[in-house]
Design goal:
17 strands; alpha/beta; 464 residues; TIM Barrel; 39% helix; eight-stranded parallel beta barrel; three-stranded mixed beta sheet
Length: 464
């Protein structure tokens, strides 16, 4: 008896793949060959206790030299849609001039992708902040805005012919709150005031990049990528319900409301109090570009389960349900038995909150999970947990589409095991469809690679 069924996606729906420059390139190669600027992450990894075994971005997966081989793996997967990033640490010199050697590498890489019929979705900032800017305050210094704008103009001038769509930022929550407040990402600060200043400056930078690139090209496709999180609580006390509201504001609304509504959520301004940054006249008009964006990119890995905590400056803390299925990084896959459709809930919530304010088109720009790959006796790379995760989440994307949410693309994260930020190259931190042998850099496709290949080819998902 066959209990399987199948769901079909719209004819023009995109199934793609995503990665980021700094996680794959091999930073030492760019420094040696291009005289590029060292990044904030190279410095961060050298500090004791910051990154797993002090793993650095120096090696990546050697995309710098192996890019032709890697394009071959994209081709074999069958997708014609590839999201990556362009590093400002590579394109810019300290005096904001173009680094021609870096541009040449990108031209060679992108031109070959285009020859293969692959559409390029380029992220302009995926956390590749040059260390020299970090030493001047990083995103707490408004000067950094000027550098991102200049980087974006250089990318447009030299690489626009290859690029189909731009994502201005990737996950501003991570490069501000997670980096300046939680301290888990570079530069590793734990200061709420710095986090709020960096968030405001980054949103301003996004607005200015939009404005400057739109001046150069009225038809340019400009978008952005956030990682909003939906918050739940298992105990609906008045305090925990308030905590859920605070968590929602902290993880999502603080970045989404300014983008679409032109204002910060008051509930969070009250929580943040004196730490709230000074807003100059005209700032919110620059930031409010949501209705002008071509698409809104959603990165999703898991939802949040929270409870009230009076002792924390944000008045909530994250907890893990003991019944939750955890991935290799101890992130919850679901929060059973109540919240197994967090992805669907988030997509519905986002669209119905912001559609009347200009959210017109959603891409799933990242979705995937980390798991240690098991090599079987026959040589196959078993990552069936990843297949389980992807199947359940792609199914939720389909459900949201059927409910009327205008989702037009899904980019799986990621093509190859790579540098997973504070987890370095820890075996349990691997998100790739392709295994990378760290000593030899040999690429070996996993079971999930062949599974996803079928979806890319058919635009259909088999359910078991």
């Amino acid at each position: 008896m066959n209990n399987s069924s199948q769901i079909s996606f719209p004819k023009k729906f995109i199934f793609g793949i995503a990665d980021a420059d700094l996680q794959v390139i091999g930073e030492q190669a760019t420094i040696d060959n291009e005289n590029s600027q060292p990044t904030i992450w190279r410095n961060f990894a050298e500090q004791e206790g910051r990154v797993y075994k002090k793993h650095s971005t120096n090696e990546g997966i050697d995309r710098y030299h192996r890019w032709k081989e890697d394009i071959g793996w994209i081709n074999k997967l069958g997708t014609k849609h590839y999201r990556t990033s362009i590093s400002m640490a590579r394109t810019l010199t300290k005096d904001k001039k173009v680094n021609e050697k870096a541009i040449l590498w990108y031209k060679n890489y992108f031109s070959e992708l285009k020859k293969q019929g692959i559409h390029i979705y380029a992220t302009l900032y995926h956390w590749e902040l040059p260390q020299y800017l970090n030493e001047q305050g990083g995103w707490t210094n408004k000067k950094t805005i000027e550098y991102l704008v200049e980087h974006s103009k250089i990318v447009y001038k030299y690489l626009n012919e290859y690029i189909d769509e731009y994502f201005i930022l990737n996950e501003p929550w991570c490069s501000t709150f997670f980096s300046y407040h939680a301290g888990d990402h570079a530069p590793g600060e734990k200061n709420l005031k710095s986090a709020l200043e960096s968030a405001h400056n980054m949103l301003l930078a996004q607005g200015w990049v939009y404005k400057e690139l739109r001046k150069l090209d009225k038809n340019i496709r400009l978008s952005t990528v956030y990682n909003p999180v939906l918050a739940y609580t298992t105990n609906p006390s008045s305090e925990n319900l308030a905590a859920r509201t605070y968590a929602q504001g902290y993880y999502a609304d603080w970045f989404l409301d300014p983008l679409y509504l032109g204002k910060y959520p008051k509930k969070m301004m009250d929580v943040f109090g004196y730490s709230f940054p000074k807003i100059e006249k005209g700032d919110m008009e620059v930031i409010k570009i949501g209705d002008k964006l071509h698409s809104f990119g959603v990165n999703y890995y898991y939802s949040a389960l929270v409870e009230f905590d009076q002792n924390r400056d944000v008045k909530f803390k994250d907890i893990v349900n003991p019944k939750s299925i955890l991935n290799g990084l101890d992130w919850p896959t679901f929060i059973p038995p109540l919240y197994q459709e967090g992805f669907y809930d988030l997509l519905m919530s986002l669209y119905h909150r912001y559609s009347e304010f200009g959210m017109k088109r959603i891409y799933i720009t990242e979705n995937g999970t980390a798991w240690k790959t098991k090599k079987e006796k026959d040589g196959t790379m078993n990552d069936d947990f990843r297949i389980f995760y992807l199947e359940k989440h792609i199914q939720q994307v389909h459900k949201a589409i059927c409910a009327g949410v205008p989702i037009e693309a899904y980019f799986e994260w990621t093509l190859m095991d790579n540098y997973e930020w504070q987890f370095g190259y820890m075996p349990e931190s691997c998100f790739g469809l392709i295994h990378i042998a760290r000593k030899t850099m040999k690429r070996t496709p996993k079971n999930s690679y062949y599974w996803y290949k079928k979806i890319v080819k058919s635009n259909k998902l088999d359910l078991k």
